Amino acid sequence: MADTQADTQQVDQKAERKVVRLAKQIDTFAKAHGGAEGQVAYIGERGARIVLVGEDGGWGDLVAPTYEIAEQAVAKSGITVHESFDGEFAAKATTGPYEWKRMAGIQVGG
Fold first, then answer.
1. How far apart, in Å, are the Cα atoms of 9 and each of 14, 15, 67, 94, 103?
2. Distances in Å between the alpha carbon of 52 and those of 35, 37, 67?
3. Burial group, residue 92, by CB count within 10 angstroms (0-12, 13-18, 19+)
C-alpha cells in the first residue's frame, strides 16, 4: 500500500510542477502582451491546448498533458478564460501575412 501512495504523490507532485510551469508561461505571455485571455480545448490523448490572446492582438498556445492541468494552470494565472474560441474573443487575435499564407497552404494540402 505504501508503494501506491508514493506513486500517487510522485504523480501529484509532477502534475503540480507542470501547472506551476504553465502558469508562469501564461503570466510571461500576458506581461509581454499587455494582458491576456485564454481558452482551453481538449485535443485527445495529447492533452489540452491553451490558446492565449494578448490585449495587443498577439497570440500563442501551450499544450498541457491533461485537460485538468490546463484548467488549473489558467486558474492559477488568473487570466479570463472563454468557453470557446469564437466571436469577440477570436476577433482580438491579430493575424498577419505569415498566418494567412500558412492557413492557405493547409487548405490546399501544403
1. 9, 10, 19, 42, 43
2. 10, 6, 15
3. middle
DSSP annotation of 84:
S
Q: Nearest 5°: CA angle at 93, between 88 and 94?
A: 130
CA distances from 13 to 8, 10, 91, 99 (A): 9, 5, 37, 38
Q: Number of helices (H) and strands (E), helices first, in the chain? A: 4, 4
Which segments of 33-96 does DSSP mark as H helices, in order? 67-77, 87-91
Identify residue 66 by its one-letter amino acid code. Answer: T
pTM above 0.85, yes or no: no
- pLDDT tens, residue by residue, 41-69: 999 999 999 999 999 999 999 999 999 99
For the stretch 10-24, pLDDT in tens is: 778 999 999 999 999
Length of the chain: 110
Give the phi and the psi of residue 59 in degrees, each rounded to 5: -145, 160
